[in-house]
Structures are given as C-alpha cells and as structure tokens.
Amino acid sequence: MSENHDYHNQGGLIAFIGSMVFVFCFFFYIVFINKGVTLDENVSDPAPAGAVKFDLASVKEPWLENPEVALAGQKIYKQNCALCHGGNGDLVGGLPNARNLVEGAWKSGGGLINHYKVLQNGMPGTQMASFKQTLQPHERWAVLNYIETITNNKSKDTPEDVAAFAATAD
Ligand code: HEC
C-alpha cells in the first residue's frame, strides 16, 4: 500500500489550481484592464492637454458680457433653475407659472441688479426661492450673465452701477 502513500486527488487539484488561476486573472482584469461602465450623462470631456481650466471665481466682474462666464452660468442654471424655468429658460419642461426668462416680463424691475436681489431674497409668496445659501455671489452673477444671453428683455443697468451694487451685495 506504500505506493498509494502519496496519492492525490489529481482531478480535484487541477480544478483547484484552475479556479485559483481564474480568480487571479479575473481580479487582474477587473483591477487593471476593465475601465468600468461609463454613464454618458453629466460627463464633460476632459480639457485638452495644455488648456487652462476656466476659473469662474477669479473673474473680477462676472456680470460683464463674457462667453466663458455665460457658459459657466448655463451649467449652474441647468442644475438649479431649469427644473422650473425650463431647459432653455422658455418654460418648456418647466413650471407654467414660473417666469419665461426669454420673454422677460419682469415683475421685480428687471435688469442685473434687480435680478440679483431676486436671487438674494427670492420672491416671497411664490416658488421662487432665495439662492443665497445655495450659490456663491460669483455663481449667481454667472447665472444672470447667462440669462442676459437668452432674454429678449435685457438689462439696462450700466456696468458702473452694477459694479457699485456688487461691491456691497452679499
Ligand atoms: C422651484 C421653482 C423655481 C426654481 C428652482 C427657480 N425659480 Fe425662478 N421663478 C420661479 C417662479 C414660480 C417665478 C415667478 C414668481 C412670480 O412672480 O409668481 C420665478 C421668477 C424668476 C425670475 C423673475 C424675476 C422678475 O423680476 O420677474 C427670475 C429672474 C428667476 N426666477 C430666476 C431664477 C434663477 C436664476 C434660478 C436658478 C438659480 C431660478 N429662478 C430658480 C420658480 C423657480
């Protein structure tokens, strides 16, 4: 019986080694090769190499016409305002009783300064809430910068008046 002393269940051993190799390869694949699932929503293209990332917070006068500020404002708009005012400010996909920002039939005077006050205080008694806690001042100016690009009833405030107001507004 000594010839059976080193008897191994060779089939079981091969299956065991095979499964370990499989587990290792699978681990290696998941960790190093598989890129994961890409959900194409809300994923912005990586900035081209060498491109300087736009820093909204560093813009001194974000109420002045500026395509980069307006683009940043559009992103903020989509996240915070589109739900009620519609994806493009025209109430399409929004609330029928919100303001159509493209038409711009303003009730609070209109213009950048009055719009900023609306974002500070909201419009009491309506669904238009204050964004003071949600958005930084430069983010609120960027949204208004974007709205200026889509509205037919544009601001008549002079850059000097807006600058003077912005210096005191929180
Ligand atoms: C929960 C819904 C809702 C959200 C979110 C919302 N609004 Fe409004 N907004 C309203 C409604 C409703 C009115 C109209 C209030 C009224 O006069 O009855 C309004 C009015 C306005 C007006 C018109 C002010 C005027 O003088 O007539 C502006 C400008 C405005 N919103 C900008 C914004 C911006 C910018 C955002 C995002 C930062 C935003 N709103 C987010 C519901 C909303």
From TrEMBL:
Keywords carried by this UniProt record: Heme, Iron, Membrane, Metal-binding, Transmembrane, Transmembrane helix
Key word S-adenosyl-L-methionine present: no
The keyword Manganese is assigned to this record: no
GO molecular function: electron transfer activity; heme binding; metal ion binding
InterPro entries with a match to the protein in the record: Cyt_c-like_dom, Cyt_c-like_dom_sf
Source organism superkingdom: Bacteria
Gene3D superfamilies for this protein: Cytochrome c-like domain
Pfam family, one: Cytochrom_C
Protein name: Cytochrome c domain-containing protein
Organism field: Pseudobdellovibrio exovorus JSS
